[in-house]
Design goal:
This protein is mostly beta strands and 392 residues long. It has a domain of 251 residues: Distorted Sandwich (Beta-galactosidase, Chain A, domain 5). Helix content is 9%, strand content 34%. The strands form nine sheets. A nine-stranded antiparallel beta sheet has the order 12-13-14-15-30-26-25-18-21, with no helix packed on it. Strands 20-19-22-27-28 form a five-stranded antiparallel beta sheet, with no helix packed on it. A four-stranded antiparallel beta sheet has the order 3-4-5-6, with no helix packed on it. A hairpin with a 5-residue loop joins strand 3 and strand 4. The termini are far apart.
């Protein structure tokens, strides 16, 4: 009888321990359902991890120090339900795989966001040849841009993450050793506030941005063209078939790019009567913000907004930069991309999301007449972008 009771006791203890472990494992998941263990790795000799920011209203942002990427962003919808509104992967291995699952999802892009024509530019008398990774052009800092590098991370508090990277002189062809700091702060008014600062040992160019792919519907397996976009811009920079600016600055008035009052993306992305949309199979263009005047950007004014009539979630964007790149996910669900599995086991269709990237204009180093991207020794590059969420 004692043996039976002892066996029964041990069995109950084992079941209790197992249940406890399962609860513990479940409790370790983020609100968005991410397993932090899947983000623990060693890449290029540096440790990666997942960092979680939360505010008083329950909003959650998860970020990995590989590329300074926002992995999930949970915001309340009109019913108070927390909804993930950014695309991405649920593990660090896919983010690191530049061949099998290339992406810029949620990244802190550097050194130079967007494209530099013919992978070269000139400072003074010296021409710098960059490493091309987009045909003959250099895109988002080259093939080993900062989105694929491991930042040093410091979680300052529950709502602030500081990420630092030191980019050596000659990194992808760019001059100067650059020390860059990205700071993510989640405020209590449901704003993800991002600041970038950088210094250099030699004159260089720098243009950082965040590359979140937003779907405010919270449904990543369906197109997001019902979302309504507003861009506070009277002008845009048209591009050629290789997405390089022609050098012109044209008015949006009378074109499908007139987003000065909100309109559904469905009205725009398939309008092949407009060459700029036909060439890009959607929107992939820089808009010249009205909030930038006399060499200074007003980051207290809304420069762009995105709204989902499904969830009631409204995103407002603020920046001190002269431009914003609007990208409507034209390469999602195309070619081999349609077979790649992402977060929640989903495959993404074309036009599932919208990127709103604050920036200097594309190819600015080759257009001295545009707001400068130059950074000199002794000076500090400072850029600011805030994504504020609410419901209406």
């Amino acid at each position: 009888m004692k043996r039976i009771m002892k066996s029964a006791f041990l069995a109950c203890a084992a079941i209790t321990l197992l249940a406890s472990c399962e609860k513990k494992q479940e409790a370790q998941l983020t609100t968005s359902g991410l397993d932090p263990v899947k983000f623990e790795s060693t890449i290029d000799g540096k440790q990666t991890a997942l960092y979680t920011l939360k505010n008083k209203s329950g909003m959650e942002v998860c970020i990995t120090n590989l590329g300074g990427r926002v992995v999930s962003l949970m915001v309340p919808d009109r019913d108070g339900k927390l909804t993930d509104v950014v695309l991405g992967y649920d593990n660090v291995a896919q983010y690191a795989d530049r061949e099998g699952s290339p992406s810029d999802y949620g990244a802190s892009i550097g050194r130079y966001a967007n494209r530099i024509s013919k992978h070269s530019f000139t400072i003074g008398e010296e021409t710098y040849e960059l490493v091309p990774n987009d045909g003959d052009n250099c895109l988002h800092g080259g093939p080993t841009g900062w989105q694929y590098q491991v930042y040093d991370a410091e979680q300052v508090d529950d709502q602030t993450l500081k990420l630092t990277i030191v980019s050596p002189d000659g990194d992808n062809g760019f001059p100067g050793e650059v020390t860059a700091v990205t700071t993510y702060k989640l405020t209590d008014d449901n704003t993800l506030d991002i600041t970038w600062e950088a210094t250099t040992t030699k004159e260089t160019v720098i243009n950082q941005t965040n590359h979140c792919y937003f779907n405010l519907n919270g449904r990543f397996d369906a197109v997001g063209t019902n979302m309504e976009l507003m861009v506070n811009a009277d002008n845009f920079t048209p591009s050629d078939v290789n997405y390089i600016p022609t050098g012109e600055i044209l008015p949006v008035e009378g074109t499908p790019f007139d987003f000065r009052t909100p309109k559904a993306l469905a009205e725009v992305v398939n309008d092949t009567t407009f060459d700029q949309i036909k060439n890009a199979t959607g929107v992939d263009h820089n808009f010249c913000l009205n909030t930038y005047k006399d060499g200074k950007g007003d980051d207290t004014q809304v420069c762009a907004s995105l709204y989902s009539p499904e969830t009631g979630i409204l995103l407002e964007v603020f920046t001190n930069e002269p431009g914003i790149q609007v990208y409507t996910g034209n390469f999602q669900g195309v070619g081999r991309d349609k077979d790649i599995v992402r977060k929640h086991g989903l495959k993404y269709p074309k036009h599932v999301s919208v990127c709103l990237e604050s920036q200097k204009y594309p190819d600015t180093p080759n257009h001295p007449e545009w707001p400068s991207a130059s950074l000199k020794p002794g000076k500090t590059y400072q850029s600011h972008c805030a994504y504020k969420f609410s419901v209406k």
